Amino acid sequence: MTRFGTVNWSKIYLYSFSRKFYKYIMTNEDIVWEELSGLPADPPDMRDKCIQCRRPVAVCWCPGLPKNPLNPASRLIILQHPAEVKRCLRTAPMLTLALEHGKCLTFRGKKFPLPKHEGLTEILKDENTVLLYPSPGAIALDELTPVGTNAQKPYNLVLLDGTWPQAKAIYHSSPALYFLRACKLVGVSTSEYVIRTQPTEGCLSTLETGALALSILERTPRIKEEMLGPLHYLCRFQLENGAVTHQSKEFLIKQKSYPKLIGKRLAKQLRVLSEEP
Ligand SMILES: [Zn+2]
């Protein structure tokens, strides 16, 4: 018995003299072996994952999504730090699934735009593109002309997705972002994302930021309410199943119950905040 199994060698000899045919069999055999060696030793991990959000079914937040994806005039452009993809409780996929196809584009990297970010350069050159980032010249988001007023076209709203240090690093390594009109959310309430500690009061998750910003730009509060559905669903589920409510570091430090010594930078930030009227 050879590895060729039932191949009849005498027939091969008769039919061919032909190295071609021999080659053909070799090739086929190679393909089969290659395919076999590519099979995983264990069955694939099929632990019932939701096909939409790709989270295990037990912790899927899809029931909280709007019944029909929302279709605002403006688009969200998410520039996502690669490390954000690995976090298990991230909110950017909630944005993508809550909005119509094409209304939330995600580009991944540590700086932007790179050649692999197809279409991003054009978006960043568009005069209706604005960056949500608290750079020194940033104006309040609600000072932007709402879509439809004075013929204002829909916006491309750029969000940096990652932790604060990651978002800062993206900004500083991406000079193309310096030229965008920058805006910031002012007077925002505490995050409704109660199971992840936010660094300061008024610091929102990517979902909350995107939802709130869109509802302001389009003057449609309903957008925010509907888009936050999955977050509320997830938090309710996690809290019912034993997660602890996390208050922001700022709140805990004010209450002197934050367990770690805080860094110089955060201490300064908090001092500035507490000195503000
Ligand atoms: Zn799901």
How many β-strands, per DSSP?
Answer: 6
Poorly predicted sequence stretches spanning 5 or more consecutive residues: 1-5, 9-18, 21-25, 257-262
Distance between the termini: 88 Å
Bound molecules: zinc ion
Q: Biggest sheet, in brief?
A: 6 strands, parallel
**Radius of gyration, taken over Cα atoms and rounded to an integer in Å:** 26 Å
Strand order of the largest sheet: 2-1-5-3-6-4
Mean pLDDT: 78
Q: What series of H and E elements makes up the topology?
A: HHEHHEHEEEHHEHHHHH
Large-scale geometry:
globular
- Strand fraction: 5-15%
Q: Structural class of the helix and strand makeup? A: alpha/beta
**Helix segment tally:** 12
The helix content is 25-40%
Enzyme class: transferase
Pfam families: DTW (PF03942)
Family: Belongs to the TDD superfamily. DTWD2 family.
EC number: 2.5.1.25
Give a topology summary.
Blueprint: H1 9-15, H2 19-38, E1 75-80, H3 82-86, H4 92-98, E2 104-108, H5 120-125, E3 129-132, E4 139-140, E5 156-161, H6 164-173, H7 175-178, E6 181-184, H8 206-217, H9 221-227, H10 229-240, H11 249-254, H12 264-275
Parallel strand pairs: 1-2, 1-5, 3-5, 3-6, 4-6
Helix pairs in contact: 4-8, 8-9
What labels would you give this structure?
277 residues; alpha/beta; 12 helices; 6 strands; 39% helix; 10% strand; disordered N terminus; binds zinc ion; DTW; tRNA-uridine aminocarboxypropyltransferase activity; DTWD2/TAPT; transferase; EC 2.5.1.25
